[in-house]
């Protein structure tokens, strides 16, 4: 029977020992943590004004890679939302606004300058640089974040690290997960188990039906 022992646990990192488990299943859990647990990320950017030296596309790319705090209870994946709208709704998207200008001296625009309509869905750190403005330059935009999964784009990966470590004993592995901050590492681990169980259950149902 498979057993799980928590070796260490914090919001940023969790290490669990998986016993009596085939490597394929342990590795499936590792991969699910990377690619199937959804988190928030900026996916659509409307540039209203940009007089910086950075192209609009580069600004949007940088914004997309800023990890955002995620609440999986309050928000739905777009495909699962009742609104069924390409524009989204308050249940499946979050608006963040950026309006920054350099006056008499250069200014580095930081992730802390992003103002979210939901105070709980904001950058995990305010110290991430976005663009540097010279005096007289300005950037103003609207950014829309939504839930997504890592198998769609790397910006939706909740993990910085997800690795299996051999313990030296048969059918025993340590799974180490480090979070980017969008979700806590323990939540990523729990969600990974739930997602893998659901996938296996769906496969079993389809096999029986066939």
Question: What is this entry, summarized?
Answer:
With 210 residues, the chain is of the alpha+beta class. It has three helices and ten strands; from the N terminus they run E-E-H-E-H-E-E-E-E-E-E-E-H.
Order of helices and strands: EEHEHEEEEEEEH
Number of domains: 2
Q: What is the CATH domain class of the largest domain?
A: Mainly Beta
CATH superfamily membership of the largest domain: DNA-directed RNA polymerase, insert domain
Helix share bin: 10-25%
CATH topology of the largest domain: RNA Polymerase Alpha Subunit, Chain A, domain 2
Largest sheet: spatial strand order: 1-2-10-9
Number of strands: 10
- Separation, N- and C-terminal Cα atoms: 29 Å
**How much strand content do the residues show?**
25-35%
The main pleated sheet reads as: 4 strands, antiparallel
Count of discrete alpha- or pi-helical segments spanning 4 or more residues: 3
- CATH architectural name of the largest domain: Beta Complex
Alpha-beta content class: alpha+beta
User: Please, what is the average pLDDT?
Assistant: 95
Low-confidence stretches: none
Shape descriptor: elongated
- The radius of gyration is 20 Å
List the main descriptive attributes of the protein structure presented here.
RNA Polymerase Alpha Subunit, Chain A, domain 2, alpha+beta, 210 residues, Gyrase A, domain 2, four-stranded antiparallel β-sheet, 22% helix
């Amino acid at each position: 029977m498979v057993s799980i022992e928590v070796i260490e646990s914090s919001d940023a990192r969790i290490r669990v020992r998986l016993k009596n488990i085939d490597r394929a299943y342990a590795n499936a859990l590792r991969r699910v943590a990377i690619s199937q647990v959804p988190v928030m990320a900026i996916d659509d950017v409307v540039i209203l004004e940009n007089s910086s030296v950075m192209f609009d596309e580069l600004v949007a790319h940088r914004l997309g890679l800023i990890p955002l705090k995620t609440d999986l209870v309050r928000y739905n994946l777009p495909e699962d939302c009742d609104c069924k709208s390409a524009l989204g709704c308050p249940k499946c998207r979050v608006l963040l606004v950026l309006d920054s200008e350099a006056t008499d001296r250069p200014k580095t625009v930081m992730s802390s300058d992003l103002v979210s309509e939901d105070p709980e869905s904001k950058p995990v750190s305010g110290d991430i640089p976005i663009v540097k403005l010279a005096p007289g330059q300005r950037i103003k935009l609207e950014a829309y974040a939504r839930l997504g999964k890592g198998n769609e784009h790397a910006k939706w990966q909740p993990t910085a690290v997800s690795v299996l470590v051999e313990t030296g004993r048969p059918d025993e592995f340590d799974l180490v997960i480090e979070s980017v901050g969008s979700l806590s590492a323990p939540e990523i681990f729990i969600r990974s188990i739930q997602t893998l169980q659901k996938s296996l259950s769906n496969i079993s149902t389809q096999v029986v039906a066939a």
